[in-house]
Design goal:
Elements lengths: L12 H5 L12 H14 L15 E4 L3 E17 L5 H4 L10 E17 L4 E17 L5 E18 L5 E6 L35 E9 L2 E9 L11 E10 L5 E11 L4 E3 L9 E3 L7 E9 L9 E12 L4 E13 L8 E9 L39 E13 L2 E12 L16 E2 L2 E2 L9 E15 L2 E12 L1 H6 L7 E11 L1
Antiparallel strand pairs: 1-2, 2-3, 2-23, 3-4, 4-5, 5-6, 6-7, 7-8, 8-9, 9-10, 10-13, 11-12, 13-14, 14-15, 15-16, 16-17, 17-18, 18-21, 19-20, 21-22, 22-23
């Protein structure tokens, strides 16, 4: 087994920035906590103000023909980790230079401005310009120290029109955010960490190149796209993809959709399990090029009787690439039940997800490519901490969640994930922004485990709406290594612990 530490953290930007989701994973910094408490005391209103009762300082122009709006986000995140990656850097590879206990501070800011120019014909021009500045003070989990960058984010111009009473057409050109379905394959268009800093916050989401057309009407949305991700300059594998998404939305929150994705070109390599699983993986260069993927997603809500508070969701994906003889698949079933009559709105959730791994006993490639998935714990992360190591390829997990809302402004969520390898003696991590490094002539990708049990992750998070524009999130997490990780470490590996606290301002 060869251990890789230089792997992009797969959490997407929405994991840290979206105030409607509230998530994170690491420890309290006393000065920052004092700042948060002071902010809440000074700014906290007796009740959450609604948009109708508060003037919008970011609305610069608002007339019948023209709207111009400013946008601004700012976040600060204090993180601490102990026994990073279960200390495998030293236990499995003998690397004593890597520090498995780290503390660091992340900050980011994202200013922007958007406009919409409307015409009497019910058509309009629209667009947005924004940029992201990010920085990490200290050394993060992937050994990057005191790094940061300012980069463009969204920079698009679009046109929309109603060509009948029921249908709307919208086209745009330029860097823009786009997420398909539940974010199983297409969500996170930007890379963070390393020379850009802000590894955990992950503020970049927009695709670097994007041509998008949407046709909407009668509950149906058809989206065609041609895009390239905003990759790190130090790890640019020159991906370019296009595709089509067809989605139906019902009146009660139910939906169903089908996405087709085609990778036009890519330099991204794949690992193939060594014959019989003995030895380092074989690296296939430019393997992602010409990949095809179909992704079905659907959700049902509003059952009758005692099941009226139950929701069920299903995601399935199939991938093929005749150029390298690849056939792979992945999927998830997910359920949630809310006790809506209780004032705390307790919600219990369960999901099971699985992604195929490469079979070391075949010549075909069965490794699932997760592409640009949304890696937050409530969406597509495989484990809370383990998601920093195990991308959505050759893994499976059972996931439980329990959420309560003691007040309209406070949410507490407990998550548990039991993570296992789908195929033994097959590569476990390799994919989204992974860096192909070599040490002593050997590929530093995990070549597989001989026991399927990888980890058990526990994560508790607290979210507070301080004001309608200020959000506080804090959390503690622990990952207990399974027998697969322990055996790879020589029989013993410590628990991986961490905590965080952050504040996000969103205008």
């Amino acid at each position: 087994m060869h251990w890789m530490l230089n792997n992009q953290y797969p959490y997407s930007a929405s994991f840290w920035r979206n105030p409607s989701v509230f998530r994170k994973s690491k420890i309290v910094c006393q000065p920052l906590l004092f700042f948060v408490m002071a902010t809440e005391i000074l700014l906290s209103p007796p009740a959450i103000a609604t948009e109708s009762t508060v003037s919008d300082p970011m609305l610069f122009v608002d007339t019948k023909q023209l709207t111009v709006r400013g946008h601004f986000q700012f976040g600060v995140n204090a993180v601490a980790e102990r026994n990073l990656f279960w200390d495998l850097a030293e236990l499995a590879t003998g690397n004593t230079e890597y520090n498995a206990n780290e503390k660091w501070l992340e900050v980011y800011t994202e200013p922007g401005i958007s406009f919409e120019r409307r015409f009497a014909s019910e058509s309009a021009w629209f667009g947005k310009i924004s940029a992201v500045g990010s920085y990490t003070a200290g050394t993060d989990a992937f050994d990057a120290s005191n790094t940061g960058k300012v980069t463009p984010e969204e920079l698009y111009l679009g046109y929309r029109t109603n060509f009948s009473s029921d249908w709307n057409l919208e086209v745009s050109l330029g860097p823009r955010i786009l997420k398909l379905g539940t974010g199983m394959l297409i969500a996170n268009g930007g890379s963070d960490g390393f020379e850009r800093g802000a590894l955990k916050f992950g503020p970049r989401e927009a695709w670097e190149k994007a041509a998008i057309a949407k046709l909407t009407g009668r509950g149906i949305t058809t989206t065609a796209f041609y895009m390239a991700p905003n990759e790190l300059p130090s790890n640019d594998t020159k991906n370019l993809l296009n595709g089509l998404d067809l989605r139906w939305d019902g009146e009660q929150g139910e939906y169903a959709g089908l996405s087709y994705i085609h990778v036009l070109k890519s330099d991204a390599p794949y690992p193939k399990a060594a014959p019989g699983g003995n030895g380092a993986p074989i690296i296939i260069p430019n393997a992602r090029a010409k990949l095809n993927a179909l992704n079905f997603y659907g959700k049902m809500d509003g059952f009758d009787g005692a099941l009226s508070n139950l929701s069920l969701a299903l995601d399935l994906a199939y991938e093929w690439n005749d150029r390298i003889d690849l056939r792979a698949w992945g999927g998830r079933i997910k359920s949630e039940y809310t006790l809506s009559d209780d004032s705390w709105q307790p919600t219990l959730g369960y999901s099971y997800q699985i992604f195929s791994g490469d079979d070391p006993n075949t010549t075909r490639i069965e490794r699932f490519d997760p592409l640009y998935y949304d890696g937050s714990p409530s969406t597509w992360a495989t484990g809370s901490k383990s998601a920093m190591v195990f991308i959505n390829s050759n893994v499976m997990s059972h996931n439980l969640s329990f959420r309560i809302m003691p007040t309209m402004r406070d949410t507490v969520t407990l998550r548990y994930a039991h993570v296992r390898a789908a195929v033994l003696r097959s590569p476990l991590q390799f994919g989204q922004a992974t860096r192909l490094d070599f040490s002593d002539g050997l590929s530093t990708v995990v070549s597989g485990v001989t026991n399927a049990h990888l980890s058990d992750d526990f994560f508790i998070e607290y979210n507070r709406i301080v004001t309608p524009n200020i959000y506080l999130t804090a959390g503690l997490s622990i990952s207990i290594p399974g027998e697969g990780i322990k055996s790879a470490a020589g029989g013993y590996a410590p628990n991986w612990k961490g905590g965080f606290i952050n504040v996000v301002f969103n205008y």
